[in-house]
Amino acid sequence: MANDMNLQGLQAQLRQLPAVNAPESLKERLQASLETLDQAPAVSYLSPRRSWIARPAWQAGLALAACSAMLFLWFFWLGERPPGAAQGSPQMVGRSNDSLSRLQAASADLEQVLDTQSANAPIYGDDQAWVEHTLQLALHQVDADLAESPAEDEQVLLWTERVALLAGLADQSRGLPLGSGIEWVQLN
Amino acid sequence: MVGDGGHLQPMNTAANSAVSRGQAGFSRPLPPATLAAARSGDKQAQGEIYDLYADAVYTLALRTSGCADQAQDLAHDAFINGFRGLASYRGEAPFGMWLRQITARVAVAHVRREKPRLVTSLDAAEEQIAHSVDPSAGCDLQRQLARLPTQTRTVLWLHLAEGYGHEEIAALFGKSVSFSKSQVARSLNRLRLWMS
Predict the structure, then answer these.
(1) Among partner residues B56, B68, B79, which is closest to A30 by beta-carbon distance?
(2) Sequence ranges of the domains in chain B
(3) What residue in A sits closest to B77 (Cα-Cα)?
(4) At what angle do helices B43-65 and B32-39 cross, to 10 degrees?
(5) pLDDT tens digits for A88-103?
(6) Residue B23 touches chain A, beta carbons under 8 Å
């Protein structure tokens, strides 16, 4: 057999391997899953982009949470730098506005990614639906909070959260693990 | 529910044994009436689709994952994704090939999620083989395949057995074409070494 072990020989041998019968338990399990899915509440009214989502699970949720936490920590680190770092800087007054505009630009970019992404990914299951449902709800809440015209510091926080949530949706739409494709938003 | 004149073909025929039967299973035609019924949520039609492609899906899942338990999970997810995504099937490719692509995506996603495992001893390798290889088909090649890392085995199987091009595999894994080529070359070298 080793003598036949060139690429063509291996290909021929692999193709001669017998098919394996699927176990009976698989069909029963599949039927049970389909019934459960049929009974699950629809979430599509909140998810116009649902068919783009390519994977997640609880690990993905964890990754999103970690991603959001990193963004927040980074922001607070910027806000709590030693006074020397900011003292005498005339740009301090404009810092928040600049951060806001950058976050808003990043948010718009991510929305554009979501709006232009191909919607052909056929992989979509209940896990994906629920994760996206969660993300959309969070996004909805952020937008609702933003609509109440909060203070400027609060606005920066909300826009940061919005960017993180959109980045999560964009990652999934590209089939990437949550948080893997995020680009840092450069604040002041 | 089967369309007029449409009937399910026997799953294991002698004619199929000369080629990869998993691959042959994917090329089985699906009666349009069955597809239409399955799209409308008909359980019987979905069951017929399952019966038609179950062995092919499971075989691909088993050959790539190398583990019966994982293969069941992958096949389950592939069918769920397939049934849930029936609306997105445009009919540009045969249904079996569409389902094969879904199965391959699920398998690759599994590989990408899986942490690298290193079989550190012959005993461990034997144990892994014992849990992964169909005992009724005690082929030496299967035993050696089971020794390959999951990622390498997946690339090798997709390329050689399922006929995926290096570009397609690179796209599935989100890596370069060189990655696919090197994985195939490495697996060939290893199999040569192990089987000599």
Answers:
(1) B79
(2) 14-116+126-195
(3) A125
(4) 100
(5) 444 444 455 677 888 8
(6) yes
Annotated domain spans of chain A: 47-82+95-173
Note the pTM of the prediction, 2 decimals: 0.54
Count Cβ atoms below 10 Å from residue A114 Cβ, excluding itself: 17
Q: Which residues of A touch B98 (CB under 8 A)?
A: 122
Q: CB–CB of B114/B150 below 8 Å?
A: yes
The pLDDT of residue B72: 92
How many CA atoms does the CB half-sphere of B133 hold within 13 Å?
Answer: 21
Residues of A in contact with B113 (CB under 8 A): 59
Contact between A27 and B50 using a beta-carbon 8 Å cutoff: yes
Residues in chain B: 196
CA atoms of B57 and B129, how far apart (whole Å): 20
Measured at the alpha carbon of residue A25, what is the angle toward residues A20 and A31, in degrees to the nearest 5? 115
Q: Does B106 touch chain A (CB under 8 A)?
A: yes
Distance CA B82, CA B98 (A): 9
| Terminal Cα distance for chain A, rounded | 65
Q: Does the pLDDT at position B133 exceed 60?
A: no
By Cβ distance, the residue of B58, B83, B84 closest to A20 is B58
Q: What CATH class is the domain B14-116+126-195? A: mainly alpha
Residue B186's identity, in one-letter code, is: R
- The span from the CA of A1 to the CA of A69, in Å, is 55
Distances (CA, A) of A116 to A41, A163, A177, B90: 28, 17, 19, 20
User: For residue A177, what is the DSSP state?
Assistant: P
A5 vs B57, B80, B192: nearest CB? B192
B172 reaches A (C-beta below 8 A): no
Tens-digit pLDDT profile for residues A52-91: 555 556 777 778 888 888 887 777 666 655 454 444 444 4
